[in-house]
Amino acid sequence: MTPAPRYALVILAALFSAYHLLRAALTLETPRDVVPVLIAMLVYAVASVLSLWPMGTTRMPSWLASINLATAIIVPLLVTSQLDPTRNNGYATWHVASIGTLMTITVVRQREAVAYIGIVFLTFQSLLWAGPGLALGMGVTGSLIWVILASVLTRSIAGAQHDAERLTQAEHATSDWQAAQYAHVHERRRRLSQTGRLATPMLRTIIANGGRLSVADRTECRTLEASLRDEIRGRHLLSDPVRSEVLAARRRGAIVNMLDEGGLEELDAGVLDAIHEQIAEALAASHATRLIVRSVPDDERVAVTVVGLRAVHRDPGVAAGPDDDDEELDVWLEIPRDGSRAGVGAVGVSDED
């Protein structure tokens, strides 16, 4: 419900409540003693103001519902205690319509059980006090009908709002699905285009040579195959500059592994571009024979590590120690998750290691 209709209903309910109090004030000469009636008017006015006062939520607080129920009990007892039940008191029985209005407000503010208890008490109290004939003339039936209608309408509106919320959620889910499908199609087309750009020249060479490939062509095929594998295993680690540097490293004989293990999907495009730039620079500067580029999914600080290992050619006359291997660390780079610049480490293996 939009704010304008809500405030219009509040104003309308306030006017009704004020009208009931005006009727009570104009008939103060009818009661035997006006003090109880004035107290009833004050109690009703306070309950009405509290019920109509904006509190941020539609559902009435339990303490206010208790006040309204107490009002529905106290006001009829105070007013009827000063009236003659054997004759028609006219507008002096203002409390019947007043409590009907207050219980209607209580229903609208989602305290249906309290409203029904209050209106049932009013009905039975009026029947016991004045009898069926005069009670019907006092407007008990009208107050009861108002509460029932308010209950039915409130339930209908609540159901409509629930259906509208479900429809909105379904629309959002459909939009998300359509966006995901569009992204999937776009990504598939991009990958097909990338694959075609890489493989088409070599496929043409294979066709032109009738399937007979030289050693260099076979090496290039393996290099292109590794590049296609990168598109699957290292998806978020790749950009055009990174692809170029990976291809250049493989063509000079290096083994390059691109391992996207997650953690990069949620990064902003600008941060991801900065990370790709550092990966490309590290690959271009390295002379390692084996390079491993891996994303780090479970680290709050590091997004990507780049490790380069260089083969070591040992003197055949020198015996290898128990801790010696045939590779030494050439590059060690940890790229921060915010994309800031990280220092590239170039470390050699010392005798002490």
Give the rounded overall mean pLDDT: 84
Tell me the fraction of residues in β-strands, as a range.
5-15%
Judging from the principal axes of the Cα atoms, what is the shape?
rod-shaped
Beginning-to-end CA distance, first to last residue: 74 Å
Oligomer: single chain
- SS class: alpha+beta
Largest sheet: 4 strands, mixed
**Uncertain regions spanning at least 5 consecutive residues:** 319-323, 346-353
Tally the helices: what do you get?
Answer: 9
The side-by-side strand order for the widest beta sheet comes to 1-2-3-4
Count structural domains.
2
Order of helices and strands: HHHHHHHHEHEEE
Percentage of residues assigned to helices: 55-70%
Strand count: 4
Global Rg: 42 Å
Write the layout of secondary structure elements.
Elements: H1 3-26, H2 34-52, H3 62-80, H4 94-108, H5 112-137, H6 140-208, H7 215-233, H8 240-251, E1 255-259, H9 269-285, E2 290-295, E3 302-311, E4 327-336
Parallel strand pairs: 1-2
Antiparallel strand pairs: 2-3, 3-4
Protein model, in words:
- With 353 residues, the protein is of the alpha+beta class.
- It has two domains: 3-166, no CATH class; 233-353.
- Helix content is 62%, strand content 9%.
- It contains nine helices and four strands; from the N terminus they run H-H-H-H-H-H-H-H-E-H-E-E-E.
- It has helices spanning 3-26, 34-52, 62-80, 94-108, 112-137, 140-208, 215-233, 240-251, 269-285; strands spanning 255-259, 290-295, 302-311, 327-336.
- It has a four-stranded mixed beta sheet with strand order 1-2-3-4, covered by helices on one side.
- Strand 2 (290-295) and strand 3 (302-311) form a beta hairpin.
- Helix 4 packs parallel to helix 6 (140-208) and helix 7 packs antiparallel against helix 8.
- The longest helix is centred in the middle third of the chain and has 69 residues, at 140-208.
- The chain is rod-shaped, with a radius of gyration of 42 Å.
- Mean pLDDT is 84; it is low at 319-323 and 346-353.
